[in-house]
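Help! Submission page says 'invalid entity' but I think these are all valid:
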Amino acid sequence: MQIETESLTQLEAEVIDIFVRGVQLIGLPKSIGEIYGLLYISPVPLSMNQIMTKLNISLGSASQGLKQLRSFRAVKIVYQAGDRKDYFTAETEFRKLTVGFFREEVYPHLESAAERLQSIQTQLEEMHSEDREHYQSRLKKLEGWQKNSHGLVEKIIKFIKF
Amino acid sequence: MQIETESLTQLEAEVIDIFVRGVQLIGLPKSIGEIYGLLYISPVPLSMNQIMTKLNISLGSASQGLKQLRSFRAVKIVYQAGDRKDYFTAETEFRKLTVGFFREEVYPHLESAAERLQSIQTQLEEMHSEDREHYQSRLKKLEGWQKNSHGLVEKIIKFIKF
DNA sequence: CAAATATTTCATTTATTATTGAAATATAAT
DNA sequence: ATTATATTTCAATAATAAATGAAATATTTG
């Protein structure tokens, strides 16, 4: 009979801590890091209930956290035969993880920035300020940034994929 | 006589908005984006007072925001002859900006992660769980990630520098 | 060096974001 | 179909982070 540990071992706690810091660096909530970290180090898939209990977080947090983690494919559901609960496991492939994040979180922002810039450019056409040229050059530069960032993100994705 | 506009023009507001979104993407406070955006589009350097007034933010925000922006070299002080106030201007070189950010914000986190991983590895040596091998392999993988991220950041910096 | 102005710091307030948990919904077993 | 269990949703609360502004600390000028 396997003894179910309710609380975290030191090892688990330390690994989770690394992930918590990591996700906070990219502006994601702590609970996301906790859940992912726990699943990352766990030898077996865990149910939502186990996750809640071990991490001492609420049902809602667990559910929402897992949802978000699945949204960028950091966590997968594993169907356990003869059990109606969902079991969750971490995607440990660095490339899949980061690519998902870039696609879900970074790309959309860059796209919308491009659109907005376009609209501002149009407005500028009608301007008759003495500073018009300055503004035009700054917007031009900003457009350059936008394109550079876009290119950089694509390069990063390629690099991550090898 | 030059008319000093107190509030933001539509152009300023829209450019600022782009920067606000941008900085929020990387987890920086809104005020940072506002200040930088204003300085980015401004044809002339601005004093802290002008920044406060135009953006309608407090003295403290302006001071702290400018401090942080200077910390990763996104903003420079320009000494204006015959005026004791400091005047601020935006660093518009994309490469300088991003390199500064990576150095100040991203690098240190990666360094500390490496140390912590090392310490966990040491603890693992003394473990006698049946799952020890699993743990070891996950930690190994995590170490791989850490090194990859480090390498990626270096590549990004190189790319940005051209 | 005193007065005036500019800037920083930091305790408090305010705004934002994450977390909770109860209710609603979905899913499976009997 | 009914009951039991699992999951999601979302309004309320708690926790966190940012903004404020008054006081402390420079800095410049006469």
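Support: the input was valid. A stray whitespace character was the problem, and the output above is from the cleaned input. The helical segments of chain A are 10-25, 30-41, 48-55, 59-71, 94-125, 132-160.
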